[in-house]
Here is the input.
Amino acid sequence: MSDRHFWNIRAKNYDKLYWTKDAGYIAKIIEAARFGRNDLVLDVGTGTGAMARSIRPHVRHVVGLDFSDSMLQQGRWEGISMVKWDINDILFRNHLFDKIVGRMVFHHILDNLDRAFLRCFDLLKSRGKLIVAEGVPPGEDPEIVDWYTEMFKHKETRRTFTPTSLVRYFAKNGFQDVQTVRYKMRRFNINNWLVNSGLRKTTQTLILNMHRDAPDKVKAAYGMAFENGVCYIDTENLIVVGAKP
Ligand SMILES: C[S@@+](CC[C@H](N)C(=O)[O-])C[C@H]1O[C@@H](n2cnc3c(N)ncnc32)[C@H](O)[C@@H]1O
Here is the structure.
């Protein structure tokens, strides 16, 4: 399945995903970014613009960029410049943005992640910052990381980031003063996530059952609970901020 076709399927119900509106997660990203009133911000992989709309009141202007027509069409863009483009391709001049934000985007970039990091590096002004927010496994124990990777294989083709691997991309591509902040999203609703992710019913059932049958170590790391057939977990999210020298 091509990347864009994947997003055509997911776009319709994307905004029904509870996690996209989690106020604590958005607030943590905004706090970590330390936006200034005069900042020009690029929200890369903006999707339906959830982050762009939250950033907008804090800065001079936000540009939301995404390569999926379907995702952009589901968004609302009052006061935001929206651009259909692939982050890997050159569009803007270099040294333009004060901050670049990418929430839950980079794990979808499979072919050349260094190139995407370098594009962001080039687009930032000197002392500009890249802010990346990603879900990570709920621990670096190999058994937990392997279970997480296997589980996601049924959902989509993606990267598994760990805090170590994500930070390495920043350092490797020239960013300095790399800081991390963790955010635990409490009671993430797995059923809501599965039903609104464009998956076949059989795949939804398979992934739900994987949670039910997960090793005790995984269940404990997630604080997993089943209530009336709904699976709740506490997800681990990492916000990484790196500065261009
Ligand atoms: C999980 S969604 C996240 C959307 C938004 N950042 C949010 O937090 O709600 C990932 C988005 O990244 C976009 N995307 C993935 N790879 C991209 C690329 N190479 N260039 C531009 N957008 C990309 C997809 O189209 C999708 O809208």
The chain has a mean pLDDT of 96.
